[in-house]
Structure formats: C-alpha cells, structure tokens
Model the fold of this input.
Amino acid sequence: MNFDIVESFAQMVREKGIDKDVLAGILEEIFGLLVRKKFGEDSKYDVVVNMDRGDIEIYLEREIVEEVENPNTQIHIDEVNRKGNEDDLEVGEYFVEKIELASLGRRLITLAKQSLNQKIREIEKDIIFNEYNELLGEIVVGDIYQIRKNDILINHNKNELLLPRSEQIPFEKYKKGETIRAIVKEVKKGNSGPQIIVSRSDNMFLRRLFEIEIPEIYDGIIEIKAIAREPGERAKVAVESQDNRIDAVGACVGMKGVRIHAIVRELNNENIDVVNYSDDPYLFIQRALAPAKLKRIDIDEVTRKAVVTADNDQVSMIVGRNGVNIRLAIKLTGYEIDILREEKPYDEYEEDIELVDLKEELGNDIFEILINNRYDTALEVLRAGAEKLKEIEELDEEKVEEIIEILKAQFEEEE
Done:
C-alpha cells in the first residue's frame, strides 16, 4: 500500500517537473499532519520517505509507563510486551512503533491527497513565477488567444501572458492566433497565480530588437547609450562604437537599411533615428536634432538646460510633427531644450510681394490704409517696422502686430 500511495502522489507531480527531494519533503510534511490529527499535536513521530523505493515509513515514539495518562505520548508496559519487547525495554524508556498507513484510515489518506494537490499548485505557481522572473527584460514569442477591450492574452509555453493596452503600440492591429513578440516587463504574485505583464511599447523591447538584428550590439562592439521613444510614432537611439574601425550608425542601419527596416516592421512602421552618441553635450544635442541646422547652442550643464538658436525656417524641423522631434531629443540627451528663433533680415529676401496680391489676407480696409500711406510691397512694410506703422492714425498696436504676422507668414510659406 505504501508504494501505491507514493507512486500515485509521484504521478501527480511528475508532469510538473518538481524535484523528487521537494516531493519527499512535501510528503513528510503532509503525513506528519495526518499523524498529529490521529495521535494529537503533542505526539512524537518521525516520517521517512524513500522516493527511490516508493516507500513511506511512520514511526511513533511513546514513553513506557505503568499507568497511562496520555495515550498519545505514553504506552503501558504490558502493551509493549504484547507487541513483542525484543529489546527488553523497561518503564521510563521509550518504545518506537512503526505505524501502518492503512491504520490512518481512508478519510485521512484522502485528506493527504487533497493537501498534496494544494501544495503542488502552490509549487507550480512558484515555478512559473521564478521562470518568468528570470526572463524579465527578455523577449518572448507567443500566440494571441484572446483579444479583450483593454488587454490581450498571449499563450507562451502553456502559460498566460498579459499585454495591457498601456504596453501596446498605439494603432497596432492584433489578430487572434497570430504570433507576437514582446518583452517580459513585470511578474506579480496573485491569489490565482503569477501575473506576467509583457510589453511592446517599452524602451527595452526596442533595445532587445537591436540586439537581435545587429550582431555588433549583441557582441558588445557597439553600445546603445540612450533610447527615446514614442511608440508607434518615432524613436531616437544613440549608439557608440567601441572599435574605431566600425561605424556605429552604419552598422545599425545596415546595407540599404535592411537591418533597421526589420526593426521598423516589427514596431508597426515606427520611424527610428540612429545617431552617434557623444560625451560633448553640444555635439550630442546637435546630432539629436539633425537634420535641422542650428546656429548656436547655449548650455547650462548645472541645470541641464540648453537654448538652441536657429533660423526661423529651421524651427519647424527642430520641433517636428506635433512636437515629437524636440520631445525625443530632450529624452535622449537629458537636457531641457528651448528654441530661440532668429529672424532672417528682410534685406536677404530676393523676391518681394506686392500688397495687391495680399489684399485678401490683409483685408480691404488695412490694404487701403497701407496703400494710402505709400506702402506698395510686403517688404516695404516689414522694413518700416512696428514703430513706424504705429504713426499711421488708423492703426493701433494690435493691428500693427497682426499686419506684421500676416506678412511674415507669406515669406515663411515661400521658404
């Protein structure tokens, strides 16, 4: 019976890959519980489990007495003699008796199986938790098996992974059954088991993709120094070569862009700028804002603030669509970057614009006022400046500013 019990228990955990020494410890704990239930909490016993032989032995130790007060810890000398006192034990000594499992009763054996099931579930949860805890920051590949309103469930090695909306790439489309890659971002313990959070929007996912697609990064020849990313939109990656013979940016981009394109496709066509890192903040900021042309950079290294001066026609390139370029440059360099526009002298414009061509933009009343005051072209008005225009009786300060903005905008559009 002992072998059958051990074997039935072993079968329950064999598929889980639990170490047999761990199982033996669990069985010792469970059968110790059964002995205490049958013989009392104050009983002295020893449970020996031999997984190789498939055997469980339980020994109960009781003091030999002439008058039994507690049958859980004491045994009468006459009973000892009836059981076969081969060692000629006497009153005051201890009698060790082997307890047959069958004597514990079917109810307690059933309780043992239930307790073992619970222990196995707990161990299984710990195994899964530890397995994914070691995979933190690493890429896993699984299959999407359920798409919910706010998250996606992924099957990975028969374990459930959670891809929350906050960790998804915006506007990326997912289909049930398709293969998906993500990094393990967080592993949390819960009542129903470990919760494994994965991410496709985290910077670490982009870093791991670079390591996969670019052998020089994996080998440590090229180092990723910083990453700034707005998932699904754009990313900037600063790299540095440890070998002067290897161009870091060129190695990351690859022949005809083949390496970087593989990463871009994985990230739902997210634009990726790869720039050379520099310890010199002036140079690093300049590279982070490329291809915009900067006239001057003033840096305060203590407050980590920078003021970038650029021609008016370069500002939109520095800022980028919806401000994404300047935000990424700030994240990448760690400097708060302000932009100072430098107006282009009006004398540098080669072509002027007749005011009659801007009649609709200016409005008929303002057009007539300017013409009546002998201003015929846009540059004539701009060169006159705000103070001169304010001398015109019909124009107040607000109107003058409005006129100048309208005319400036015409030249900026032409550029």
Summary: The chain has a mean pLDDT of 86. The chain has four domains: 2-125, 135-201, 204-342, 347-414.
